[in-house]
Each structure stands twice: as structure tokens, then as C-alpha cells.
Write a structure and sequence with these properties.
The chain has 183 residues and is mostly beta strands. The protein has 2 helices and 8 strands.
Length: 183
Amino acid sequence: MIPAMDISTPCVVTLTWTLSDAQGKPIDELAEPLEFLVGGQDLLPKVEEALIGQTVGFEAQIHLEPENAFGDYDSKLVCFEDRSLFPADVGPGMQFEGLPPGAATPDMPGDAVYTVTEVYPNHVVLDGNHPLAGMALRLALKVRDVREATDDEVKAGSVGGPVFSVVGSAEDSPDARGGRTLH
């Protein structure tokens, strides 16, 4: 029988979790086990810190203040752009990588993911903050498996693409991406 591997950097952990706001309202549930690279870009540092030295079966309740999660909300990342720059079916919850060509606010970060928050006849309101920016969060997680990371995973700094979503919102789509991710 092979002894269980301790979580260390780098390795791959398989997790399930429930993410809630500070009042306990569910935001995200990862019910199906999913792999994450410890020591890469997959997990928030505070989550990795709780995992290091643990093994399969470990469970934790982690409280994340905004500075340890998705950052503080920055009103400077909200802008108004001309409605004509967007597709006819643009609506709240849609997300765009960067601003559209012809944007009137070129000083905004070009690599941000912008979420449409409101659509008016003449303009669209875009928010470059992560949907959970400014929120304190509770993460209940369980380690389902631990394995060695492959050379390719270590080189990439990740096991795969982001999967984080916000339950009950337009960000539930598989294309939802933004800001810092849990994965």
C-alpha cells in the first residue's frame, strides 16, 4: 500500500468545495471533484496556505477577506461605452475580453474581462472588476486526491482553465471568466 502523499509545492490536488458570502449565501459549488495545481496559478494563496502539509480527506473552512480573494472593488474599472460598439443582443451579464475597438476610455486596462452591468439606448456600462471583488467569502473545501504534478503542468503553472462561476447569475455560463480565479 502506497502511503498518502502530503500536499506540497508543486503537486496536483483534487478538490470539492462550497463558496459562500460572509452571510452564508451560496455563491459557487464544485460538487464534482476537480484538479488544481498547488504552487501555480490555480488557487488563491490563502487557499494554498491552508492545504500545504495536508493529505487526502482534509477538510477546511477558510474565511477570505477581499484582499485575500478577488480584491477590493475599484470604481475606476467601471466605464460607459457607446451602444453602437456592441452586438445587437448585448445584455447584462455578458463578458468581453478587453474593451471594444473604438472605445472612448482607452485608459482602462486592455487585458481585463469586462462584464456588462447595464444597457441603455445610447451606452453600455462595463465593469472590469471580478464579480466577487470587495466581498468577504467563506470556502468549505475537501481534498479528494493528491498526486505529483507533471512537468507540463508545472511549466504551464496550471492544470487547466478557470472554472469559477457565480451561482444564480449570468456568469454561470461556461464562457464566464474574470479577474483572479480560484481556478
